[in-house]
Every structure is written in structure tokens, then in C-alpha cells.
Design a protein that fits this description.
The protein is an all-alpha fold. It has a domain of 36 residues. The two termini are 31 Å apart.
């Protein structure tokens, strides 16, 4: 799920302070009633990027990978780019 401007009710309280919701604020009332919090799209992209890095690491250092076969040179510089 990605966030798009203007698709949720706005806070009239200025937003939660230290995670505390304000009863009477339309958005806080929605959240108190169980509405899903806003998730920004870049968080999902960051998670996908992290998953790709983990997969590359496993591929390089895993059984049969370049590192275990000695194909990465005298000094392994994997990840230093």
C-alpha cells in the first residue's frame, strides 16, 4: 500500500505527539477506531532494496557462490561500491 496526498483525513490537532492520539481530531478518531496508519511508498522501496542486497550477499557468499569458489580476487571487495 502506498500513500498518496489527500487520500486520508487530515489532523486538526497538528499530528500525534510522541505517538499519542488526540480524541476529537478527525484523523486521530479514525486511528483510534482501527484505521490503518499511512505508509509512505519509499519505505516499501527501501525494504525491496534491502531484500535485493541480502539476496546478492547470499548469492556471493553462499555455497557455490563467487566467494566460495575463489573468484572474487585475492581480497574480497564485495559490497564496497
Amino acid at each position: 500500500m502506498s500513500w498518496q496526498a489527500g487520500t486520508t483525513t487530515g489532523h486538526t490537532c497538528g499530528g500525534p505527539v510522541f505517538g499519542r492520539l488526540t480524541p476529537g481530531c478527525p484523523r486521530c478518531d479514525e486511528l483510534l477506531a482501527g484505521a490503518a496508519p499511512v505508509v509512505q511508498a519509499r519505505r516499501g522501496q527501501r525494504a525491496r532494496d534491502e531484500s535485493a542486497r541480502i539476496a546478492e550477499h547470499r548469492e556471493h557468499f553462499g555455497p557455490g557462490g563467487r566467494h566460495s569458489r575463489g573468484l572474487c580476487g585475492p581480497v574480497c571487495t564485495f559490497g564496497e561500491w
